[in-house]
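As noted in the main text, all predictions were made from sequence alone. Below is one such record, for Leucyl aminopeptidase.
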Amino acid sequence: MTPQFADATDSAIPVHVIEEGAQDAWANDRPPRVQAWVRANGFTGALGWHLLIPGDDGAPAAVLAGYGTAAARARGRFHLAAMAATLPEGTYRIASGLPESDTETEALGWLLSGYAFARYKAQEAGKARLVAPEGTDAARLQTIAAGECLTRDLINTPASDMGPEALDQAARDLAADFGAAVTVTAGDDLLAQNLPLIHTVGRAAAQAPRLIDMRWGDAGPALTLVGKGVCFDTGGLNLKPGASMGLMKKDMGGAATVLGLARMIMALKLPLRLRVLIPAVENSVAGNSFRPGDILTARNGKTVEINNTDAEGRLVLADALTLGAEDSPDLMISMATLTGAARVAVGPDLAPFYTDDDAMAQAVSDAAAQVADPVWRMPFWEPYEKMIEPGIADLDNAPSGGFAGSITAALFLRRFAGDTPYTHFDIYGWNPTPAPARPKGGVGQGARALLDALPQVLGL
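Prediction:
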């Protein structure tokens, strides 16, 4: 269930946000017993510390929420969400002290603190419900939270229940909710429709590979979202070691993220024409697995030498990007859990992205800072183009040497976007340690930044 804001009520418990060192200034205007309580508990307004203030009946009458210093807050995000997850069940309202510039982000974080993945086991989510702070667009924030929760649920579901067929059904369910149209090309029909790389990567799996194509909207600029939907990645014949295979249910994180973003776009009725393309496959091992050394021909006629079957994501995306570019959209964006090199470069919390459009890069970076969805621009570095050219084919899917792996993967994908304005996100899609508003597990990255940037980028 997607977390919702509580209805406004006079009985909502007030939350006073206190910066570090400002506790005395706040307490001086309160009754002596409150002043004594704050002093006796040593509350200082330090970030992450909250203090319940009891009423005459012993029940919570107010909450002090430590908000630390600007320097301390810069080292994290969704600070009130940490408190929300541990407060007693009840309805709360922000009464004072929260900077206006932080209100929407903190309110969204509070909402997301109520998320729990409970498909297989009952899980306790935060039960402290927040009244939407004055001045916030509550409906928009709840819509964003619903998109993020969809992304998390899809990533968290293991491949036993989230193979290509289930991902297909998830897209159909989303389309049905918003009146979108879906067509799916599966199995050998991929070859008939000239989507050979998607077929080749997924043909060894028990469930047929497929290309999911969802369309919504009939007016406005055209936006195409392409999401990597590798529902499980064994590495193929270049088999991953067990330790590297353990999280591969999340290798469809790009697909999950674009579906979450699509849900936000459709629910908010953005005036654009949306297309979502998801190559949904499982990279498995069988007698008909594709092999190292194979040379494959993509939809656009380019030949690709396979030097590692574990670099399969860029192959399925290549056909999808080519198909998307044939429509000449105003903007095409791919999102994929594509390379370990991106994690080495920026860690799990940052989403690196690539674009040749400086205005697009600035809009996304500014939006990311505004909505606490961190991203980092990386370069389409032209001198590395030769690294993806093996000599006996047009392209190499896994250049040797190990250098600049995220950049070379992005350069590979750009070869299939044609002349379409194109941006690529190399996301991780997973939160390895619990954090405020982000439990351990699947997480959306870059979607909220894109949602905020799209009006400027597309002139909506």
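The domain at 13-114 is CATH 3.40.220.10 (Leucine Aminopeptidase, subunit E; domain 1). The chain has a mean pLDDT of 97. These features were considered when defining construct boundaries for the mutagenesis experiments described in Section 2.9.
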